[in-house]
């Protein structure tokens, strides 16, 4: 059970480093989306990205096989936001997303 405790601490420390979109101020939440990436549960998104949602639903048991990994992991959609709309209109912005599940 000692390993589980240290594992829980590392997960908690990773979680505290991740910026979640739902915790951001309104200026970020309503900003233009300029990029999307998918990360595994243990990965911290790059600077400037916010964790938007879990891919495949919000069910905590929803896990997927990740290339190069031997275990199933939760996947998360992360977004990069541009709160300055004058800058946002000068580059392509994300306006729609489609997630396809080939294994279903």
Description:
- By secondary structure, this protein is α+β, with helices and mostly antiparallel strands.
- 23% of the residues lie in helices and 26% in strands.
- It has 3 helices and 5 strands.
- The protein has helices spanning 2-17, 26-29, 85-88; strands at residues 32-40, 49-54, 64-65, 72-73, 75-82.
- A 3-stranded antiparallel sheet has the order 1-5-2. The protein has a two-stranded antiparallel sheet with strand order 3-4.
- A hairpin with a 6-residue loop joins strand 3 and strand 4 (72-73).
- The radius of gyration is 16 Å and the shape is globular.
- The model has no long low-confidence stretch (mean pLDDT 78).
Tell me about the largest β-sheet: 3 strands, antiparallel
Structural class assignment: alpha+beta
Mean pLDDT: 78
- Extended strand count: 5
Strand content: 25-35%
Output the strand order for the largest sheet.
Answer: 1-5-2
Helix content: 10-25%
**CA gyration radius, whole angstroms:** 16 Å
First-to-last CA distance: 35 Å
Q: Pick out the low-confidence regions.
A: none
What would you call the shape?
A: globular
Q: From N to C, what is the helix and strand string?
A: HHEEEEEH
Number of helices, where a helix is a run of at least 4 consecutive DSSP H or I residues: 3
């Amino acid at each position: 059970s000692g390993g589980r405790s240290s594992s829980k601490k590392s997960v908690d420390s990773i979680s505290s480093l991740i910026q979640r979109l739902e915790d951001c101020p309104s200026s970020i939440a309503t900003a233009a989306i300029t990029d999307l990436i998918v990360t595994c549960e243990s990965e911290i998104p790059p600077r400037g990205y916010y964790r938007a949602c879990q891919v495949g639903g919000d069910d905590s048991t929803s896990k997927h096989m990740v290339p190069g990994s031997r275990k199933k992991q939760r996947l998360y959609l992360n977004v990069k936001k541009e709160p300055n709309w004058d800058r946002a209109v000068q580059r392509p912005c994300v306006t729609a997303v489609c997630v396809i599940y080939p294994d279903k």
